[in-house]
Amino acid sequence: MSQEITLVEVALRDGSHVIRHQYTKEKVIEVTKGLNEAKVPYIEVSHGDGIGGSSIQYGFSKDSDIELIRAAKENSPFSKIACLLLPGVGTLDDLKEAREAGADMVRIATHVTEADISAEHIKFAKNELGMEVVGFLMMAHMASPEVLLEQAKLMESYGADVVYCTDSAGALLPSEVKERIELLVANLNCKVGFHAHNNLGLAIGNTIAAVEAGASFVDGSARSMGAGAGNAQTEVLVAVLDKMNYQTGVDLFKIMDVAQDIIAPLLPEPVIIDNDSLILGYAGVYSSFRLFAQRAGKKYNVDSRSILMELGKIGVVGGQEDMVMDIAAQLSKRQE
Amino acid sequence: MSQEITLVEVALRDGSHVIRHQYTKEKVIEVTKGLNEAKVPYIEVSHGDGIGGSSIQYGFSKDSDIELIRAAKENSPFSKIACLLLPGVGTLDDLKEAREAGADMVRIATHVTEADISAEHIKFAKNELGMEVVGFLMMAHMASPEVLLEQAKLMESYGADVVYCTDSAGALLPSEVKERIELLVANLNCKVGFHAHNNLGLAIGNTIAAVEAGASFVDGSARSMGAGAGNAQTEVLVAVLDKMNYQTGVDLFKIMDVAQDIIAPLLPEPVIIDNDSLILGYAGVYSSFRLFAQRAGKKYNVDSRSILMELGKIGVVGGQEDMVMDIAAQLSKRQE
C-alpha cells in the first residue's frame, strides 16, 4: 500500500484558460520555484490549448510558450517540465522549439476516438527529440471503456510512455473511472494516467478511484486553477493520497503555501462549480457549446440547459456547433 | 436501481455559520420558496449550532430560530421543515417552541461517542411532540465503525427514525464512509443518513459512496453554503444522483436557479477549500481548535498545521483547547 503516484501540476497550462493565457515569464518563474521547492515531479507549462495555441481562435498568449517553458526549466532544478500539444494546433516545429527550451515531457492530446492523429507527433517526440511522451485521450466519457482501450493501445504502439484517460468535461462518475482505468491497466504495458475536472464535484473522488484502479500518473492544479470548474485541487489531492498511504513525494505544507500565497492571488475569482460548469459536466458536452446554446435558447425561448442535454445525448463533438440551432428549434416545437 | 434518496437542504442551518447567523426572516422566506418550488423534501432552519444557539458563545442570531422556522413553514407547502438541536445548547422548551412554530423534524446532534445525552430529547420529540426524529452523530471519523454502530443503536432505541453518520470535519475517505454506512444499514432497523463536509474535496464522492452503501437520507447545501469548506453542493449532488439513476424528486434546473440566483448573492465570498479547511480535514480536528493553534504557533514559532496534526493524532474533542499550548511547546522543543 505504499505505491508511488506521480503528480503533474497543470496550473501553468490548464490554469492558463482561467487568466485567458496572460501568464508572464515572471509569474511562471514564481510559481515554478514554489512547485519545485514543494518537490512536484512534473510541471506542465503551455498555452491552455497547448503549445502553438496562441492565436485569434484560442486567444493570444501574453508571453510565448517557448519563453515560458525556458523560464520554468531554468528555475526548476528538481521538477521536470512538461508541455501539451494538440496535433492541428501545435506543430512538430513548435515541439522541437519546446524541447530546445527545456521541455522534458510532451503530452500529445487528441479526442478520445482520434488517437491515430497523434502517431507522427508521438514518434517524433520519442525518437527524434528523446522526450518522455504521454498520450492524452480527451473527452474520455464519450467512448466506451473498450473504445478507450483500443485508442490507448494505438498511442502505446506509437511509443507513448503513459496514456491518460482525460475527463475533459468532468462528466465521469467514480464507477466509470474505475472501469476504464482497470481495463487500461490490465491491457497496456505502459503507465496509465488520469486527468479530472470538477464539474460534478468529483475531481478528487474520481482521481482516487483512478489510483485505486491502478493509475500511477495523476494531474492536479493548485487551488483548482483549471478550465471551467477546475481540476483536482493539488494540495487537497496530496493530502488525500497521503491519508491513503500513497507516496507522491510532494511536501504538503509547501504545496499548500504555493496554492494560497502564489496561485490564489492570480485568480480573477475563486474556482467553484457554477451552473455553467455543472450543466456541461451533467450533459457531457464540450464547453465550446455553451455560448451557442445560450444564443439558440434566447432565439427559440428554450432553456439553454435543455439544449445542452440534447446535445449530450447525441454526443456532439467540437466542430458540430452548427447543430445547436436545429436542436433548439426542435425543442421549441416540442414545448408547444 | 431507481432507489429513492431523501435530500435535506442545510443552507439555512449549516449555512448560517457562513453569514454569522445573520439570516433575516425575509431571506429565509426567499430561500424557502425557491427550495419548495424545486421540491426539496426537507429544509433545515436553525442557528448554525442548533436552536437556542443564539448566544455570546456561539454568536447571536439576527432573527430568532423560532421566527425563522415559522416563516419557513408558512412559505413551504411542499417541503417539510427540520431543525437542529444540540443537547446542552438547545432545551426541551426550545424544541417545543420550534414544534409549535411548525418544525416537522428535529435532528438531535451529539458527539459520536455521546449518544446517551440525546435520550431525553429524542423521546420528548417523538413521544410528546410527535415529530420525525433524526439522531445526528457528529465527528464520525473519531469513532471506529463498531463504536459508531453502538452509538447509533442507542439513538435508535430512544426512538430515532433516522440515524446520521455526520462527517463534521470532512475527514472521512470514501472507503471509510462505505464501511461505516454498510455496518449501520446491516444492523439498524431505522433509516441511515450521511452528512458531508468538503474539507478533503470529497463531499460529493463520500455522499455517493454512502448512498451506494445504503444510506437513504443525505444532506446538501446549495452552493456548498455550510461551515468551513461547505457541504455536498446540493445542485451538484442532485445532478450526480440523477446520473446514477437514484430518485431525489428534486427539480435540477430549479435547484440550480436557487443556488445561483438566491444563495450565491448571500455568500460573503465563494465557498472553497482553503488551507484552513484543508488542514482541519486532514488532521481530523474540530474547527474550534484552529485559532488556538495559530496563537500557540506564533508563541512557540511552530507551524500551526503541525500543531493541528498532533491534536488530530491525540484525538482531541471540543473542550480540550487548553492542551494546545502544551502541544506547541513540545513541538518547539522537538524542532530544536
In short:
Two copies of one chain form a homodimer. Chain A is α/β, with parallel strands linked by helices.
Count of alpha and pi helical runs of chain A: 13
pLDDT below 50 for ≥5 consecutive residues: which ranges of chain A?
none
Distance between the termini of chain A: 59 Å
Q: Tally of extended strands of chain A?
A: 8
Biggest sheet architecture of chain A:
8 strands, parallel, barrel
Q: Helix proportion of residues of chain A, in percent?
A: 40-55%
- How large, in whole angstroms, is the Cα Rg of chain A? 19 Å
The appropriate CATH architecture of the largest domain in chain A is Alpha-Beta Barrel
The quaternary organization reads as homodimer
Mean pLDDT of chain A: 96
Quote the CATH topology of the largest domain in chain A. TIM Barrel
Q: Which percent range describes the beta-strand content of chain A?
A: 5-15%
GO molecular function (chains A, B): 2-isopropylmalate synthase activity; 4-hydroxy-2-oxovalerate aldolase activity; manganese ion binding
Protein name (chains A, B): 4-hydroxy-2-oxovalerate aldolase
Keywords (chains A, B): Aromatic hydrocarbons catabolism, Lyase, Manganese, Metal-binding
Active site (chains A, B): 17
Walk me through this protein's architecture:
Chains A, B: It catalyses: (S)-4-hydroxy-2-oxopentanoate = acetaldehyde + pyruvate; (S)-4-hydroxy-2-oxohexanoate = propanal + pyruvate. Chains A, B: This is 4-hydroxy-2-oxovalerate aldolase. The structure is a homodimer of 336-residue chains. Chain A is an alpha/beta fold and 336 residues long. Chain A folds into two domains: 261 residues, TIM Barrel; 51 residues, Helicase, Ruva Protein, domain 3 (Orthogonal Bundle), CATH 1.10.8.60. In chain A, 44% of the residues lie in helices and 12% in strands. Chain A contains 13 helices and eight strands. An eight-stranded parallel β-barrel of chain A has the order 1-2-3-4-5-6-7-8, surrounded by seven helices. In chain A, helix 10 packs parallel to helix 12. The longest helix of chain A has 14 residues. The radius of gyration of chain A is 19 Å and the shape is globular. In chain A, 58% of the residues are buried. The model of chain A has no long low-confidence stretch (mean pLDDT 96).
